[in-house]
Amino acid sequence: MATKKVEYVCKYCGKREIKQANMGRPLPGKCPRKTGDKPHSWVVNRRFES
Questions:
Q1: DSSP bridge pairs for 17
Q2: How many independent structural domains does the chain possess?
Q3: What is the DSSP string of the chain?
């Protein structure tokens, strides 16, 4: 059985994280490109099966 994965990318700094589709979005963390301690803004970059 293939596992579905999703690649998320922060639209401000470009940080990428790959997670299984059923795990949801990554934790917000701190985006270095935003002022202050603002979180990453995750968007789906691509979906794939492995």
A1: 8
A2: 1
A3: -PPEEEEEEETTT--EEEEEGGG-SPP----TTSSTTPPP-EEEEEEEE-
